[in-house]
Amino acid sequence: MHPLWADLHIHTVLSPCAELEMGAPDIIERCRQEEIDLIAITDHNSARNAKALIEAGKLAGITVLPGVEVQSREDIHVVCIFPEIEKALSFGEWAWGLLPRIPNRPDIFGMQLVIDAQNNIIDEVEILLVQGIEAAVDEIIRKGHSMGGLVILPHLDRPSFSYTAVLGILPEDIEADALELSCRLSEGEAEAWKKKLPNLPIIRSSDAHRLCDIKRKCATPILADAPTFDELCLALNGERGRAVLWPWVLDIDLRI
Amino acid sequence: MKISEVFRSLDLEIHVEGDLGRALSGGVVGDLLSFVMKVAGEGNIWITVQNHVNVAAVAVLKEIPFILLASGRVPSPELVDRCRQEGITLAASALDAYPLCGKLYELGLKD
Predict the structure, then answer these.
(1) How far is A93 from chain B (nearest CA, A)?
(2) Who has greater pLDDT, A5 or A254?
C-alpha cells in the first residue's frame, strides 16, 4: 500500500471562470511539481476537456480521472467522477441536454475552450456552462451513481453553490461517496466540520481555477495500491486496507 | 418608474449609484442565480438576499440596472466593486423581500 496524493476537483479552460493558463500540459506539469499522483478534471456541466488531460497526464505518469461538476436547479454543485472517458462524456451529454440555452458572454464570464493534449483549441462552447441544469440535486446524485460514477459534494464550507449553503443541514442518508471541504480551512475548523458530518469520508480538493491553486496542501492523501479509480473507491469506502487519510494534519509528509 | 423615484419613496441604503434616470420595466425576486438568469427581464429591479459577486454578473447578462438587497443584507466588497465597474445601481433595505415588493407594487411597478 502506498501513500498517494489526490486532488479530485480541478477546472480547465473550458470553465468560463477558470484562467486561460489552465491548459492540459500546464495543469499536468503543475501536478508533477507538486507531486500529486491522481487528479480529477471537473469542469462545469461538461467533460469535454477530460480527454486532453488524460492524454497529457499519461506522458507524465499522473492519473487523470474524467469528471463533471454539475450545477443543480438549486444552484448546488455536485462533483461526479467516472472510471472511463466514455462514461464521463455520456454523463456530460445528459447534463448538456438539461442546460438552459443562455449564450455565454465571454466578456463577463470568460471563454469556454475545448482543447487537445497540446492546448490546441478544438472548439468553443457558446452556451453558458455555469448555470443550473433542469435537475434537482438528488436527481444528479442518482444519475451519477447510475452511470457508474463517484459522487462528491464539494466545498461544503463555502457560502455559495454548496449543499449546506443552499439547503442547510446535510441529510444523514445523503447518497454521496465523499464530502469535500476547501483548503481554506484551518485544522480546527476542519475538525469541527468532521464532527458535524460523521457519516462520510471527508476529502480536501483545490477546486483550482488557476495553476497556483494546485498544491499538495490543497489535496488529500490516500492509502492505496495505485492511483486508479477502483483503488480510490476502495479508499473512500475504507476497504481492504485502503483509506482516506485526514488531510489537515500539520507537517504531513508521505513521500516514499 | 425611474430608479430615482424608488430612492425617493423607500428608505434605502445606497451602495452604488448607477444611472438613476433609468426607467424600470418591472421586477424579479429570487436568490438562486440560475433561476433569475432564466426569468428576469431587461430593465428589471432585482430583489434578493444573495450578495455573492456573481449577482453582478447575472445582472449584466440580463441587463438588470438595479439590485436591491433585502432583509438588511450587507453587500460583499466584491459585489460593490463589480456593480461600480458595470454601472449597476446597488442598494439595501432593512425590509424583507415581501414587504419591499408590496411597496414597489403600490408605487406602480406592477410587472
Answers:
(1) 19
(2) A5
At residue B85, the pLDDT reads 96
Give the residue-averaged pLDDT of A89-111: 96
Mean pLDDT of chain A: 95
**Nine-digit cell at A197?**
458530518
Which of A75, A105, A108 minimises the CB distance to B33? Answer: A75
pLDDT given for residue B52 in this prediction = 86
Q: Which pLDDT score is estimated for A159?
A: 87
Q: What CA–CA distance (Å, rounded) separates B27 from B47?
A: 8
B19: which DSSP letter?
A: -
Q: Min CA distance, B43 vs chain A (Å)?
A: 18
Mean pLDDT, range A96-125, rounded to an integer: 96
CB A90 within 8 A of CB A147: yes
How far apart, in whole angstroms, are the C-alpha atoms of residue B48 and residue B37?
A: 13
Query: Which chain A positions have a beta carbon within 8 Å of B53's beta carbon?
Result: none
Q: Which among A167, A189, A178, A186 is positioned nearest to A234, based on CA atoms?
A: A178
| Dist. CA B48–CA B97, nearest whole Å | 7
Q: How confident is residue A91, by pLDDT bands cut at 50, 70 and 90?
A: very high
B51, closest residue in chain A (CA to CA): A160
Mean pLDDT of A131-145: 96
Rounded to a whole number of angstroms, the distance from the CA of B32 to the nearest CA of chain A is: 6
Q: Helices A85-97 & A137-146, crossing angle to 10 degrees?
A: 150
CB proximity under 8 Å: B 74-103 to A? none
Find the mean pLDDT for residues A174-186: 96
A73:B61 CB<8 A: no
Per-residue cell: B28:
424579479
Starting from the edge strand earliest in sequence, which strands make up the sheet with B66-69, in order? B13-16, B89-92, B66-69, B44-48, B26-29
Write out the DSSP string of A179-233: EEEETTS-HHHHHHHHHH-TTS-EEEE--BSSGGG--GGGSEEEEESSSSHHHHH
Q: Do B32 and A75 touch (CB under 8 A)?
A: yes
- Contact flag A75-B61 (C-beta cutoff 8 Å): no
Query: What's the pTM?
Result: 0.89
User: Which grid coordinates belong to B57?
Assistant: 454578473
pLDDT at A256 exceeding the cut of 50: no
